[in-house]
Amino acid sequence: MTLEGKQLIGSETLTAQGNSFQAVDPATGDSLEPTFTTAGQAEVSRATELARAAFDHYRETGLEARAGFLETIADKIEGIGDELIERGMAESGLPRARLEGERGRTCGQLRMFARVVRAGEWLDVRVDPALPDRQPMPRVDLRQRHVALGPVAVFGASNFPLAFSVAGGDTASALAAGCPVVVKGHPAHPGTSELVGRAIQSAVAECRLPEGVFSLLQGTGNELGQALVTDTDIKAVGFTGSRGGGTALARLAQDRPEPIPVYAEMSSINPVFLLPEALNHRAAELGEAFIGSLNMGAGQFCTNPGLVIAVEGQGLDTFLSAAAEAVKASGTQTMLTPGIQQAYDQAVAALTSSGKATEVARGQSSEAPNQCRSGLFVAKGQDFLADETLQQEVFGATSLVIACTDQAEVKRVAEHLEGQLTATLHMDDADTETARQLLPTLERRAGRVMANGWPTGVEVCDAMVHGGPYPATTDSRTTSVGSAAIHRFLRPVCYQNLPQALLPDALRDDNPASLSRLVDGKREH
Amino acid sequence: MTLEGKQLIGSETLTAQGNSFQAVDPATGDSLEPTFTTAGQAEVSRATELARAAFDHYRETGLEARAGFLETIADKIEGIGDELIERGMAESGLPRARLEGERGRTCGQLRMFARVVRAGEWLDVRVDPALPDRQPMPRVDLRQRHVALGPVAVFGASNFPLAFSVAGGDTASALAAGCPVVVKGHPAHPGTSELVGRAIQSAVAECRLPEGVFSLLQGTGNELGQALVTDTDIKAVGFTGSRGGGTALARLAQDRPEPIPVYAEMSSINPVFLLPEALNHRAAELGEAFIGSLNMGAGQFCTNPGLVIAVEGQGLDTFLSAAAEAVKASGTQTMLTPGIQQAYDQAVAALTSSGKATEVARGQSSEAPNQCRSGLFVAKGQDFLADETLQQEVFGATSLVIACTDQAEVKRVAEHLEGQLTATLHMDDADTETARQLLPTLERRAGRVMANGWPTGVEVCDAMVHGGPYPATTDSRTTSVGSAAIHRFLRPVCYQNLPQALLPDALRDDNPASLSRLVDGKREH
């Protein structure tokens, strides 16, 4: 397929008039063909008008038709073949195995949502039949289902050019809910975005859906995203990226004449607690495994373990020695973009000059462009409690170990943490009571609490929560990964005494899709 | 019980040092004993600190214990006896039957949430067991449940001194979810609030719960509410009241260092569509019934029918004649507060002087204090489409009828509407196709769509939606009435590979409460 560098708006491909830009191969610094241009207000308006026009039809597609559409998108993405992997590698600097795995995850995610759509639990059907003889007042017939919010703006993320981008979790869950989607592609991988966008465009046509169900807008700068979030036809936003970016979008959305929800997944340092008995028995092993997780994808994961907390002593010393050796042995890795690499170096320099954090080890260095050199630092618990800057996320393969005087200080550090995507306990059976003391704090602070693992690796399943209190996300009440993500794009509607002929299928007496329903307070299957 | 005019903070009763105030009987204009004082920052901090201290314990109370607590509150409210009804009548000007009904609704609502808590569906338990042999990568053990958000600030509403006040729907659903509650009582009915607050305080003690589970702060002015919403220990807000008030609270909450959700139920004019065949067959009957709904509670309902839309012609003329007769026969009714009565007169005067709305009829007048004189106005469809001020809510028994040239203009008026709590269709069988054309618009615009009824009257049940797109509420994704309101105060947490000894009961392998769970994608009961 020849990349065209165009906007995909409904069934059309258009050339926008804004700034031109090209992707850069971060491993070489070379620009990649073709040249893209930046969409402006005209393209935003055209895409959102088409989305609005498609909405009433698309949100009422049957469960089978909608599920089939999601599966067709997955098939079409797989159908692109190796071109997608190669373009993704060139635009991101990520290795082949990672992108192949990410493609599998992306298509698996679409197929999971197809299963979720078919099962229909997301409709949350409730029926309270009329009680005409009830005293002192009769009850009318009341039925509830969930409907889609409206067209959704999705912002592609740089760090997962497939799984959190054009056909990523936000798009898949919004389409599953019945929302048309307008994607703002990330300018770091416009070619990858175009390939995937054309796959979705082709699936829309093949499934004979209204063209406005999907559009892809490309561009650099902040104006495009701002125009999208403030467009009156957009009813919700999905975003994965920086705290600054997510917070700005949330504020824009709140300041609209009609405020809309923003699901921004932003910032997390993913604290890892090493409990005493675990440290006693396997400190060196933990230290080595820790750096394995830290270095994954050059640390460019939302769930990268950026903070380790333990009581000082011989166990922690052993852990630090093993971790330091592993860091020193770490080769450099290409980061996603020159901007991300510069921000990483600046954040590590700020840590070095903080006066509170001490460098334990750095990885190998390299003269190649845009390289991430791993780093390990240590600070005292009391300094962490006194200095908010030590909680700032370093996006990349650098982590800070907090040495506490005792378990009570560990607990204070836990309470002091901002909201997180994850919190991890490394523990032995003999640590159970210590873990039990920490658990209520971790539940309040994080969306996912784990034992004896590492936070990198986010399974796409029903039980996953990839979310958490602010600033991990702008909305702790949901998740951006896993089947529950569909609920972000739904709202309940109640139907009172509506004739059967006007009720949506899900609410009709004959329940044609055999949905699970809560009828008069009792669950019926 | 002797009213003390004090703050109820945890188990204590305290006198605050702020402005003093007394309730006013709106029917007479007389002040009512005792004098209350306004809580300040010290009282807010004390209440929220106690709430924070109570949170980890309260949110893990067992289902039976928590349900029993809600039922004990209901019992204690009933135990107050007639003193509650008489104080409520004096402070609100509402008649006895209305307050007795509201007490029944309030206690019924608490008992409904007890049933919901016991059933446990709100936990939304999901279990994805480990798959150690899965290729290419094993799956870890992942389990999800919902946990309470944290302490909730609830603002009592003036128009339902029991059902939307201290022990109203927001408090009941937040307590059901496991959130401690700090209520800001409405200054129009501080005595009613104190009686109910003491009932909850007594239930907390009887159920041996931490005292911080409930506090009641009283006062006038905006500072108290602002201090509560910006308090770092408060994690969500429930509010029923004006659009200005709700919007201001939402903005305050968004501007916090840690933004929090605000569930404000604010403003709705509840459009009623009279379809052609219904008008042909029963215009006079509809006109009379409409005024019955309009006059209920002096129109001081969120669901008051403030807008009627129909195609002009003989049917609409007959409807208007019958409605006009009913309005002229309407006696005045006492409004809740002098401020509400003044705002009502100003809003009716603005309609009169708009140049777009024509007065059809006014109700009888009266020299008694704080009276609501019913009003009926008519305007043209094209004028409604051109003038946003005609959409402004008139809080009280005045409604505007929009006469459209044809059904296409009716549809344009429907599309032009802001978000609403309700939308109503009066229709005969022969109107089914006309209704079908309007339905998608109404689903996008309102939380509850009904046929052949009137929007006043909001059943407390599983299927109810008392919510809707902005400005009906600040969050269309939920409801403030009915069992689904519990979801407002919950967030998901995922547990990965946690030992059984640390898992919450709901997630343990042995499922001690026999909860419904989604296990490996399949529903188990």
What does this structure look like?
Chains A, B: GO terms for molecular function: 2,5-dioxovalerate dehydrogenase (NADP+) activity. Chains A, B: Pfam families: Aldedh (PF00171). Chains A, B: It comes from Halomonas halmophila. Chains A, B: It is an enzyme of class 1 (oxidoreductase). Chains A, B: Keywords: Oxidoreductase. The structure is a homodimer of 525-residue chains. Chain A has 525 residues and is an alpha/beta fold. Chain A has 2 domains: 7-266 and 477-488, Aldehyde Dehydrogenase, Chain A, domain 1 (3-Layer(aba) Sandwich); 271-451, Aldehyde Dehydrogenase, Chain A, domain 2 (3-Layer(aba) Sandwich), CATH 3.40.309.10. Chain A is built from 14 helices and 23 strands. The first copy, chain A, has helices spanning 41-59, 63-80, 82-92, 96-119, 169-177, 190-206, 223-229, 243-255, 276-295, 314-328, 338-352, 381-386, 407-416, 432-445; strands at residues 7-9, 12-14, 20-25, 30-37, 125-128, 142-148, 152-155, 181-184, 214-217, 236-240, 262-265, 271-274, 307-311, 333-334, 358-362, 371-372, 375-380, 398-404, 420-426, 446-451, 490-496, 517-519, 522-524. In chain A, the strands form 5 sheets. A 7-stranded mixed beta sheet of chain A has the order 2-1-9-8-7-10-11, with helices on both faces. In chain A, strands 15-17-18-13-12-19-20 form a 7-stranded mixed beta sheet, with helices on both faces. A 5-stranded mixed beta sheet of chain A has the order 21-6-5-22-23, with no helix packed on it. In chain A, helix 2 runs antiparallel to helix 4 (96-119), helix 3 (82-92) packs antiparallel against helix 6 and helix 4 packs parallel to helix 5. Chain A starts with 6 loop residues before the first strand and ends with a strand. At the A-B interface, strand 5, strand 6, helix 8, helix 14 and strand 20 of A face strand 5, strand 6, helix 8, helix 14 and strand 20 of B.
